[in-house]
Amino acid sequence: MVSRKLMGVWVALDFSLLAAGAITLAFSIVWRRPDILMNMVVSSADLTAGTILGIALLATFVISVGAIIQRNHVTIGLVILNYALLLDVFAVGIVGSFIWFYTLRERADFHLLWAEAAPATRIILQDRFKCCGYFNGTDLAEVGGAFCNSTAFITNLNPNITSNFCVTPLTAFADYTLNNIFTTIYGFMAIVLSLLLASLCVIKKRNEDERFKKIDAKRGGRGFV
User: Fold this and answer.
1) What are phi and psi for residue 203, nearest 5 degrees?
2) Are 188 and 20 in contact, with CB atoms under 8 Å apart?
3) Which one of 100, 113, 139, 223 is least enclosed by Cβ atoms within 10 Å?
C-alpha cells in the first residue's frame, strides 16, 4: 500500500500544479485589459503563450485526478499523467525562455515600441515617468501633457541625468516585470518535475504491492512467514 506520507506529498504537489495553472491563466486574462504600459511590456504573444501554458497545467491536473483514483493495479492513468508532465516541462521551459530572451535587448526593443506608439501614448508615458523622449530629448519626444509642456523645457533638460529620458524608467519597469514573470514560470518547473518524480514513486509502489499480492495468492494467502 502506498504510504500516507508519499500520498500526502503527491497531493500537495498536485494542488500546487493546480495553483500554478490557475495563476498563469488568471494573469494572462487580467493583463489583457487596456493598460498602455502593461500592454507595451507584456505583448499579446506573451499573453497567448501564458494562456496556453495555464490551460495545459490545468488539463494536467484533471488528468492527475483521474489517474490517482484508479485502483492500485491500474497504473496506465499515472503513466499518461507522466507523459503530460513531460510536455508541461517543455512548455514551461519554452515560455519562460521566450520571455527571458526578450529581457536581453530591452533598450533596443522598447525603442522600436516607442517609435511605433501613437503620440498620445508617448505623452501619457512621459507624464507617468516624468521624462521626455526615449534616449534623449530629440529622440521621439512629444511636446504636450503635464511634464513635457514645451520645446524649451525639453531642450533644457540635463542630458547627464538619465531619468530625464524615458529609456531608463521604462526599461526599469519592464525589466522588473518581465524578470518576475519568467522567474515565476521557471519556478513552476520545480512543481512539475517534483510531481513527475512523486508519480513515478507511486507507480513503483503500486506495482510492488500488486506483485506481492500475486505472490501471496500463489502461496494460498499464507504470506511470506
Assistant:
1) -60, -45
2) yes
3) 223
Q: Which of 157, 214, 188, 20 is nearest to 92 (CA)?
A: 188
Hey, what amino acid is at 40? M
Ramachandran region of residue 140, left (φ > 0), alpha (ψ -120 to 50) or beta? Answer: left
Provide the angle, in degrees to the nearest 10, between the axes of the packed helices 119-129 and 167-218.
90
Give me the pLDDT at residue 71, please. Answer: 76
pLDDT tens, position by position, 70-107: 776 777 889 999 999 999 999 999 999 999 998 888 89
How far lies 217's CA from each of 2, 212, 222, in Å?
20, 8, 8
Type of residue numbered 209:
D
From CA 202, how far away is CA 5, in angstroms rounded? 11
Partners of residue 144 on adjacent β-strands: 148
**pTM of this prediction?**
0.85
Q: How far is CA 198 from the centre of its chain?
A: 22
The angle at the Cα of 175, spanning 170 to 181, to the nearest 5 degrees, equals 130
- Asked if pLDDT for residue 224 goes beyond 50, the answer is no
> On the CB side of 120, how many CA atoms lie within 13 Å of its CA?
1
Q: Which set of grid coordinates corresponds to residue 171?
A: 526599461
Furthest-apart CA atoms within the chain: distance in Å: 99
pLDDT tens for residues 125-175? 999 999 999 998 888 889 988 999 889 999 988 888 888 999 999 999 999
CA dist 95 and 126 (Å) reads 31
